[in-house]
Amino acid sequence: MGIPVRIHYTLWIVFALIAWSLARGYMPQQYPGLDLATYWAIGITSAIVLFASVLVHELSHSYVAKKNGLPIARITLFFFGGVSEMTEEPQDPGLEVRMAAAGPLMSFLIAGVLGGLWYLSKFAVAPVAVSATLGYGALINTVLGVFNLLPAFPLDGGRVFRGSLWKRSKNLVGATRTATRVSEGLSVLMMLGGFVSIIYGDFFDGIWIIVLGWFIRSGAETSLRQTLLSETMTGVTVGNIMSKNVLTVPPEMSLQQVVGYYFLVYPHGGYPVVKDGKILGLITLQSIRSTPKDRWETETVRDVMIPYERTITVQPNLTVLDAMQKMARNKVGRMLVVEGDRLLGIVTQGDLVKSIRTRQELELSQVTSQSPGVSPVMSGQVGYCVQCGAQLSLGTSVCPFCNAKQPQA
User: Fold this and answer.
1) I need a surface site. Which of 40, 104, 172, 281 has the fewest CB within 10 A?
2) Same domain, yes or no, for 115 and 216?
3) What secondary structure, in 3-state letters, does 68-88 show?
4) 207-to-144, 197, 201 alpha-carbon distances in Å
């Protein structure tokens, strides 16, 4: 379906544990009298069937999402199973319920098919290894379907539960808070049950139940934070929060001058490089640090800057949530905000965090700040040196960087 599938390294750990526990424990008890190689073959094959089933389970979520216009970034298989990573959350409670329910329904369907084949294998006198693998596949998919129906985040049942509450109350945040409290209660019960199991001698299962309980609690808290973030920043664009009066650097300035005039004076980690109003690139602290200090007097900004073609830029109408994802994907701490070839501002991780924190503290939701229709850069409140291109305040008579006299209106 055009969805990348990633295997996290933790999957190999649990794969080995499952194969080992089946080959050395479960299968010898259920099917005694087989040789060790057969038990290991059953264990490895059954572990493959398990994670193949988890993948199909996640694909069912992704199929429903894509059919309803929600993009899926990728599917990741990891220690606890799998997760379909959506770039957008469903805006309709009915869709959330359908997406969440698709996974357990697919698990029950797989369990039914494998169970039917296991039943038929008895009459076909199939090898024990085949029958054992089919039986385990049917059992584990039934368990997978039932477990995912628990009304706890981040399990599918938690999303079904939240979607039902959301549909009835019309309040996504309230529904998420209720679902999170239920999830936390279930996680505490699971962890207590795990401790009891350890006390009564079932150490392995006890540890596993405790870890699952912790996973549910952590997932519930994460889901609540994501929902609050999404609701808080809905409708807020980069243009609302960007820094508009951006200091720019001329390309001919030496690195020593940039350090003295910019990085040691202002608290920013990077500056656009501009000449005659045209963006040439971006100079960052990393660019400076990568150049030996004995070359700072001779090297210029143009020599070490990140060229404009390689900088990450955004439009002012891009939402803050999309900007956060773009910043994370490209592993950058700042992005230039442009319109055509004109620089409107700059947005940094600090700007995003500050805006989110302020809005959450003020409990604002779906309220956008009123920004001027024309940015200071475009309205003439700043200008550029006629000789070196440095950005200057309106009315500056002499450029402090190259000492060139500036024409006055």
Assistant:
1) 40
2) yes
3) CCCCEEEEEEECCEEEEEECC
4) 19, 8, 11
Please calculate the CA angle 22-27-29 and round it to the nearest 5 degrees: 125
* Domain match, 82 and 170 both: yes
- Kindly state whether residues 23 and 169 are assigned to the same domain: yes
Question: What is the three-class DSSP state of 344?
Answer: strand
Say if residue 116's pLDDT is above 90.
Answer: yes
What CATH code is carried by the domain that includes residue 316?
3.10.580.10
Q: Determine, yes or no, domain membership for 73.
A: yes
* Residue 343: partners with Cβ closer than 8 Å, 6 or more residues away: 246, 248, 272, 274, 279, 336, 337, 377
Euclidean distance between the first and final Cα of the chain, in Å?
Answer: 61
Domain for residue 399, yes or no? Answer: no
CA gap 234, 237 in Å, rounded: 9
Q: In whole angstroms, what separates CA 140 from the centre of its chain?
A: 29
- Are residues 181 and 289 both part of a single domain? no
Q: Which two tokens stand for residue 276?
A: 């005659």
Residues in the chain: 409
The answer on pLDDT for 275 being more than 50 is: yes
Residues 142 and 268 placed together within one structural domain of the fold: no
Question: Would you state the structure tokens that stand for residue 284, as one six-digit string?
Answer: 């960052």
Number of Cβ within 10 Å of residue 76's Cβ equals 17
Residues 173 and 316 in one domain: no
Among 199, 233, 267, identify where a domain stops: 233
* CA 248 – CA 235 distance, rounded (Å): 29
Looking at the structure of the chain, the number of domains it has is 2
Looking at the fold, whether 51 and 117 belong to one and the same domain comes out as: yes
38, 110 Cβ separation under 8 angstroms: no
pLDDT digits (tens, 9 = 90+) for 146-194: 988 988 877 888 889 888 988 888 887 788 888 888 888 888 998 999 9
- The boundaries of the domain holding residue 319 are 238-393
29-67: per-residue pLDDT in tens?
888 888 999 999 999 999 999 999 999 999 999 999 888
- The pairing of beta strand 334-339 with beta strand 306-307: unpaired
Q: Same domain for 59 and 163?
A: yes
Q: Which residues does residue 338 pair with via DSSP β-bridges, in sequence order?
A: 343
Omega before 154 cis (within 30°)?
Answer: yes
Domain annotation covers residue 406: no
Nearest to 47 by CA among 81, 75, 9: 81
Q: How far apart are CA 385 and CA 393, in angstroms?
A: 10
